[in-house]
Amino acid sequence: MHEKIFPIGPQHPSLKEPIFLKLHVDGSYITKAEFNLGYTHRGVEKCAEGYLLDTALHAVQRTCGICSQCHSMAFLNAVEPMTGVQVPEKVYLQRLITAELERIHSHLLWGGVMAHEIGLETLFMYYWREREHILDIFDELTGNRVHHSPDLIGTAKRSFNKENLQMVLEKLDLVEPEIKELRNVMENHDVITSRFKKHGNIPKKMAEDLDLVGPTARASGVNYDVRQNAPYMAYGIKELKVKPVIRSEGDSWGRTMIRCDEIFESMRLVRKACEMIDPNEEVPKKKNLIAKGDFSRGRTEAPRGENFHFVAIENNRIKRLKLRTPTLANVISYARIMEGEDITDVPVIVMSLDPCISCMERVAVIRNGKQENWTSHELFEGKKYD
Amino acid sequence: MINVVDEIKKIKADRLISITSVPKDGGDTLYYHFSFNDQVEIKEFSIEVPKGEKVESAITVYENAALLEAELTELFGVKFEGNPHSGQRLFQAEGSEGPKRCINIGTNRVKKDA
């Protein structure tokens, strides 16, 4: 048989973000897969270096357009203990509400894109219609639909009031039955089941060996969720203990159903947090804080899995910031699970892992002590330093 | 070459979360972030890597080190011995020489490695 190379990407209709998949095919079956990254560097890590913690937080919150709050919380998990600031419970609850709404929004976004990949355009629009309601909540709570940016070190930019919380609960009541219906469609649609089941298998052993995270790992039976294993902020409160959804299939189907079910667990957490929060309490004003120690790290459970931040400090400024996003942890499985699959299943398998490429590709660049504006040519070719 | 595998084996962590390079005195400090105790705790194992020195790859203990080390090679110029993926370009176009986008925090060790 003649083996041929079939390229997918970096620009391709089935890819929402640029990544290059180099598939070695025998007929239509994939014998080997390679991938190239690096088409959407933005220099987030380097943007933060040299800045005060407050300023760096602005860059960190803009790492990802989908899980902005989870990046913010991972960074705060790292730096707040260094400053010794006492964070009120209300601030923690506000962060939890935003983070869990973000998970709902992320999974709805993913559900729509997945439906689009298999040609179910109507389902795609239904998913994104429900997502709009969640974005409306973000608009109400934070003033921003995408990069919510509600946090400050030790506090929040604003306090959620009674009307805000009422709106959250009303919107959740509105979308929940619709999302249940969408889940039923996902579960029972013949096209979906036939194309998802037994494709893109990740056995539990492989998930453990590759240290995969998030729904990708949990769909293979790995019981790991940062919110459960190492509860942070409001997740440590007894009533807000997370019950992670675990499945054992390990295929595209398992990963799909995990995300469908996680939405309802997030809704439970948001409703409970709304009950517990005191709408009349004001959040404290921002303080100038000094960080002590050389370095710290924080992690959160983002919609795609464990999100890890390492922060090294020098003179109260960021010396080095490292973000290990969940997609970077999961992308290593791509090459493995493509092998033996039919080429027509590639879009579904890729999307079942819910990659967030621009979130993953952060990258470090040089500023050399001065703030400079870089052209993309300078950034990618390093011309300023030749 | 700096040997790390034996030390890493002794640690007996649940998982390797990430590897971070922090430039220092022309070389790098590498932090290996491990989770312990049913993923509850995180601890670091760090080594000093003088400029130009190679580091033993941790891929034989943790498979996911492949990507993390490849990233450090391409972006920071830290060389790893025994990582079969080190030649696989992840972030740079084929044919380009790395590292292009490193490093030193505000000061000198910029440019390409020798």
* CATH fold label of the domain at 5-81 in chain B: Beta Polymerase, domain 2
Q: What Rg of chain B, in angstroms, do the CA atoms define?
A: 14 Å
CATH fold call of the domain at 86-286 in chain A: Cytochrome-c3 Hydrogenase, chain B
How are the strands of the largest sheet of chain B arranged?
Answer: 1-2-3
Widest sheet: strand ordering of chain A: 1-2-3
CATH superfamily of the domain at 5-81 in chain B: NADH:ubiquinone oxidoreductase Nqo5 subunit
Distance between the termini of chain B: 17 Å
- Number of discrete helical segments of chain A: 16
- Say what oligomer this is: heterodimer
Structure, explained:
The complex is a heterodimer of chains A (386) and B (114). Chain A is of the alpha+beta class and 386 residues long. Chain A has 16 helices and eight strands. In chain A, strands 1-2-3 form a three-stranded antiparallel β-sheet. In chain A, a hairpin with a 2-residue loop joins strand 7 (305-314) and strand 8 (317-324). The radius of gyration of chain A is 21 Å and the shape is globular. Residues 363-386 of chain A have low confidence and may be disordered. The two termini of chain B are 17 Å apart. Chain B has a domain at 5-81: 2-Layer Sandwich (Beta Polymerase, domain 2), CATH 3.30.460.80. Chain B has helices at residues 5-11, 65-76; strands at 15-24, 27-36, 41-49, 54-56, 79-81. In chain B, the strands form two sheets. Chain B has a three-stranded antiparallel β-sheet. In chain B, strands 4-5 form a two-stranded parallel sheet. Residues 100-114 of chain B have low confidence and may be disordered. Chain B is globular. Classes of the chains: A alpha+beta (386), B alpha+beta (114).
